[in-house]
# Entry
Amino acid sequence: MTLTINNLKKKSKDEIAQMLGLTDDLPPSKEAALERLAELGIPTKKSEEYRYFDVESLLDKSYEVHLHVPKEPKIGEKIVIENGVIIEVPKGMRVYYDQCDALDLTHYDPIYYLSHLLAPHVIKIDLDGDAEVELVHRYTHSGALLPYRIVLFNQENRHATVYETFETEEISESLILYGYDMHIAKDSTLRLIKTQSMDENRYAMISSNRIKVNDHANAIIKTFDLGGDHALQLLKVDLGTYSHIDAGHLLYLNHQAKRGTVSKINHIGEHSTSQQEAKNILDGNARGIFDALIKVEHSAKWTKAHQNSKAILLHEDAYMAAKPQLEIYIDELEASHGATTGQLDRKQIFYLQSRGISYVEARKMLVIAFANTLIETVKDTRHQERIQKAFEKAFYAGHKELKR
Amino acid sequence: MSNNKNEKVLEIKDVHAKIGNKEILKGLSLDLEPGKVHAIMGPNGAGKSTLSKTIVGHYDVEMSGGDIIYKGKSIKDWEPEERALEGIFLSFQHPVEIPGVNNAYFLRTAVNAKRKHEGKEELNAAEFLREMKKYLELLGMKSDMISRSLNEGFSGGEKKRNEILQMMMLEPDVIILDEIDSGLDIDALRAVSEGINRMKDGKRSFLVITHYSRILDYIEPDYIHVLKDGKVIKTAGPELVAQLEEHGYDAIEE
Amino acid sequence: MAQEEIDKAVSGEYTLGFEIDVETDVVPPGLNDDVIRFISKKKEEPEWMTELRLKAYHKWLKMEEPHWAHLHYDPIDYNSISYYAAPKTGGPESLDEVDPKILAAYEKLGISLEEQKQLAGVKVAVDAVVDSVSVKTTYQEELQKHGVIFCSISEAIRDYPELIQKYMFSVVPMTDNFFAALNSAVFTDGTFVYIPKGVRCPMELSTYFRINALNTGQFERTLIVADEGSYVSYNEGCSAPMRDENQLHAAVVELVAMKDAEIKYSTIQNWYPGDENGKGGIYNFVTKRGLCKGDNSKISWTQVETGSAITWKYPSCILKGDNSVGEFYSVAVTTLAQQADTGTKMIHLGKNTSSTIISKGISAMKGQNTYRGLVKVGANADGARNYSECDSLLIGDQCGAHTFPYLESKDTKGQIEHEATTSKISDEQLFYLRQRCINEEDAVSMIVHGFCKEVFSQLPMEYAVEAKALLELTLEGSVG
# Structure
């Protein structure tokens, strides 16, 4: 089946169901998703969440909807998901297909619902104990629309870590709609370290996530988005009593990239805390997006919320759109945000050059120094080095082309 | 007020007080005599700061028993500003910063509130500034203190000097000094104690709360009260200081 | 000095909520071509103006009311509003002809229209607007000696058509937004100011707006042009009687600053805010924009917003000239059930342009206060700099404070900095002041003034006093 998502614009619930080939007797969760999608409508450039992301041109294209056929995964070291199909699973790990039974019915992003509707099932990952797991996504189809969803559970009182990376073959013009429904159990910690290096013109991605942080739980979400192309990650985080989220987003973009984070962190429980930091380095014609809302509900007394975005523009055509937002309904709290946009300090570059370091290396040193505060939050040195390498690769790719 | 030996300006009578759910003062009694310097000493956690908070009516403290009699009247249900207007002054251990509120404007408002309360003519801006400058000089404070925001960005020493400045200009009858010497270098300590000693006029009473005896080298006390576990366990003359220095609080018997 | 005002303020009610008892000419509610022709005719406008109004009206009909702001209100029925109301006595030739009731009303508002009664040493020229008509402009003669034009916009359309045709709609185009389009069609009065080359306007200029008639909207339009090397400081104030119904105010202000010119525009907005249940009050939908057209020009907006049930207002600067400067200083107070969505736009187009945004939001009772601001740095704006500071103060746990900055930068040699904090009046601060003999209410107002100080210091002296008193009045009873 081929699909142009923009054709779903301004259609009724029934029309959307028909166009997506959904049968009459839908499970309740899909029925609800359909309703929400019809209510929110397909995103346009006027949608506040997609304001800075060129969503219309992506949704205007016609794609071959890629239907994933489950097959028996082999036992390996990592979880590997190829084109939405589980092909490798570590021994003893529970990774399986299931129906999605717990949808968030208050998500702001229509693509969250669309991806749930298009995905025939969800991939459930139950993290046992203090698991540390690598998750690899791989894409091999051109011109494809690939919708899939992951539902992630961890256990109470446990500390689990997921390292997520993305691989691709020489494909082009694909659109990936994917994302997590994360349920972080009481008194547990879940760390998600995502690194996504993208080359120009391979695939675009809209990743729409829901993160529920239960009472006394910690969520640590660090994303490292490097290179080119179009990708937007949308996060909705709900914080319970005494829960905490520490979110960090590094963007290093070049070429014609349009990438970034749209997030809404809802403080619902008392004494919940959030810390969000974005560092954006933009080269070439790239556009970086940081559109982040912290909302403190009336119930969330004694909340602490801090948010910060810093951007460095390396090229005269680079562009940063920062929208740090606070929406606050109580007075017993501590909240602040800040955002700056600037460039590398000429004096610093000159100082390094005067010590015999080339212009490109001097820039690299300063840019990495800027990025390092985020990279260093990845405690595991092996993964830290991996991210640093990916970062350097993206840096040189940008600088080769610019012939500086 | 005559300097009658039996006269008391402030009587703390069997006071019980809680902070949160924790009882800190457990039947504390203490009398202040006019014109005298009373020093309260005691180990950490004895209830020294709670005592000062209780006298000035701090919002943290809930009095669950006893009474506080000031100039013959019970003040335990009075608002904080009523106690202040009647002449009770607390020099805070950690004075709070209030951004944007001009130091001179604040102090003039305070001084005039008190003058009005006493039926005196209020000071106009020029009169007030003349007075303020006099005291600034006396305390070795820079004249930019007039235009800066209240305590904002002040060093530890500047904050304490500013407390003493306020004390001198408000001319209170009972002065409570809560750890006035903490965080002061020797010059600041000297300036602060000079300010305090200048306030001694034979009528004013002082309650000097301190953990160390250092400040008592500069302000000579008439009485030493040892506070322990929410009660005054010993009252004696200044000779007790040396004894405490040598043997510590544990050696004091009730 | 300010004590008298402060004492007056402590009465705690909306003291400006009286009604002027004069007969008014009112058109029946509703809007169509005929109503627009009627307004234009009443104003004795030339044909070209009538045509422009009709053009704006037809475009407006095709536009939709915007709803992206953080505001909740019942739909506005544009056909239940009367678009023209005028005190029957009409335009006066001298002060003697002004209805004594209007004069008395202005006295009550604390504004003297008698030139000799002005504060000693401080001359303030006033244009007083009641409902749709300018009733009196003072000091016109003295201003004319300097070549300064200060008159109602209706007079300007008749007397200075070249200036109006050149500059009106040049900063806020007719169809800029829904409310601006409506204003373009039905604007009734307002003020026009022109400062010639090299002239420093010798006195503060001021307009006082008052909505008086029932069920009317107020749609004034202000245009200020500062020619090369000139300077002007302009102030506007507003009030309205207490009414149970909501009244619409949709004004447009356009400022043009030529090379080396400076315009300082201050507003003290005190429209009736409605009651604590959100009943009544003014819906304030205002488009204000300044164009720094020439190099080294400067436009500075200062606003103290205490009134209105709904405020939708973003005084903006387009920094087109190289080295031009835009400033926005704002105090917005929402108490009772007031809602404000206000902020600014700073559009950097020229080289080395700079902008400063200082926004202080105070929310109390059920008030919802939103800062929304855009800082946009264009690709050619080399060396553009912006500094924004948005602080919120919350009093009580039923109110809300929201900060929505949009920072869009395309320049590699500039700097954008945005900071925001949210705080409450701490118990510790209150106690400290009370221990120093200051009662609780005075202590709160002292802390609030401290919070707003950076903005108040931008206002001309007399207005700073008024703003302080107004703030106290507004927050009266909301602390406890």
Notes: The mean pLDDT of chain A is 90. Chains A and B do not touch (no CB pair under 8 Å). The first strand of chain A starts at residue 2 and ends at 3. Residues 381-402 of chain A form the longest helix (22 residues).
